[in-house]
Amino acid sequence: MLKQTLQQKLLQKLSPQQIQFIKLLQVPTASLDTRIKEELEENPALEDGSLANMNDPVEDYPDKDPDDFDSNEESYDEEFSVEDYIQEDDYKDYGAGFSGDDEEDRKEMPIAIQDSFFEKLQNQLDLLALTDKQYIIGNQLIGSLDDDGYLRRPILSLIDDLAFSQNVIAEENEVLDMLQVIQEFEPAGIGARDLQECLLIQLKKRDLNNPILKKAIAVVQDYLEEFTKKHYDKIEKQLDVNSEELKDIINEILKLNPKPGDSSLVAGKQLHIIPDFHISNNDGTLHLTLNGRNAPELRVSRSYQEMFEHYEKAEKNDKKMKEAVQFVKQKLDSAKWFIDAIKQRQQTLLKTMNAIMEFQYEYFLSGDERLLKPMILKDIADKIEMDISTVSRVANSKYVQTEFGTFLLKSFFSEAIQTESGEEVSNKEVKKILEECISNEDKRKPLADEKLTDILKDKGYNIARRTVAKYREAMNIPVARLRKEL
């Protein structure tokens, strides 16, 4: 027998508008244009006001000052008034009004066409006089290389692939012969099956009459583990060389490329960061502006508003007319909500960044990391009276451009460390001192973590050795033995 009960619960749910705002808040400036274009394509009731006013003399993506925004925006729960979002300007033809100069400015920049890594290998294969079977095997080998240029698949697996996909029965020695051919291709080291083979291929392509190169081959071939762990004293003893000769040998090995497949892609792998904020120093007074891309000129379509007014006056008994009214009203509401979300995003970004700037004012004046104060997400959340998750979404994906570099907001947050005098300082200050100590150390006798701990204690920072090791690893600095140089 079923038992029916009544239960009262208090649940907190986000409205669709709040969810939309949260998603927009964590979108960085570089991706905001794409997100707005998607919304413009999906919602015909939303328009880009900058396109409609292209003849107006406005600056592309001007920075927005915090004072430009009204802090008292209408909430999502207020009744929708579409007139607030419709500009009084008459419509202009989107396709008209372009002069010859404008057309010249709008021409796209030519893009250089370059062969890919695999296309370059394929071109070298095409130049060889090969039988059909050799050519198919070579093609299969090139297609099996990874992005680093290595062949990490077993030879027997390649033989199976040739049999099942190419209907070619190949022997192991035939595949290995073609692999040797491909290993002669450029860039040097391509087609290797591990790091050792990659380095050996590159070394053997150089002047083998050079005694230093011969010993470099011996190091890679017989003492690679000692080399990677920097046990230089063992290598000196085994090769019977002095420290100066070993230094020349190590330098030759360090010139080699451990990932030859990446060599043709280095130029294209450039990280492009678009700052969300700009901080300028005007005679000791900091001035914060928001990147204009965060403040697009969006508005509700006048034609959709007129369509809605027309449908409202039409006969209400018609089912199709009711559906049309509902559809247009939905698109108008959606456009209004998106514009509101964009405006709220602008205000939240400015409010959060302004609080961070005020908190770290001395740092932003000079750029000295030692002046960074201990600051956690809760400090800023309390200051702007918002949730910690909101501050986290802003800090994790937004950048600020200053006079001394462009930084992720997350980098300004740090935990506090207490000195012997009782003063609280940022762990950024400790990391800066560690970095300076390591950069100024004698590379022949690098400082161990215990010694670094003693140096910090002498400076008044009483922290444990394991904390020093944690900070060193966070800065991607290896242990003392691996920092040793000849």
Outline the structure in words:
The chain is of the alpha+beta class. It has 4 domains: 16-69 and 275-384; 117-189, Arc Repressor Mutant, subunit A (Orthogonal Bundle); 194-263; 416-483, Arc Repressor Mutant, subunit A (Orthogonal Bundle). Helices cover 48% and strands 7% of the residues. The protein has helices at residues 16-25, 29-42, 49-52, 100-105, 117-126, 132-143, 155-165, 172-182, 195-204, 211-222, 224-228, 232-239, 243-254, 302-313, 319-359, 361-366, 377-384, 388-395, 427-439, 449-458, 465-474; strands spanning 46-48, 277-282, 285-290, 298-300, 399-402, 405-408, 416-418, 424-426. The strands form 3 sheets. A 4-stranded mixed beta sheet has the order 3-2-5-6. A two-stranded antiparallel sheet has the order 1-4. Strand 5 and strand 6 (405-408) form a beta hairpin. The longest helix is centred in the last third of the chain and has 41 residues, at 319-359. It is flat and about 95 Å long. Residues 54-61, 69-80, 85-109 and 264-270 have low confidence and may be disordered.
| Structural class designation | alpha+beta
Report strand order across the widest sheet.
3-2-5-6
Count of domains? 4
Largest sheet, in brief, is:
4 strands, mixed
**In what range is the share of β-strand residues?**
5-15%
Number of strands: 8
C-alpha Rg, in Å? 32 Å
Q: Report helical residue fraction.
A: 40-55%
Global mean pLDDT: 78
Number of helices: 21
Could you give the distance between the termini? Answer: 84 Å
Spatial shape = flat
Poorly predicted sequence stretches spanning 5 or more consecutive residues: 54-61, 69-80, 85-109, 264-270
Order of helices and strands: HHEHHHHHHHHHHHEEEHHHHHEEEEHHH
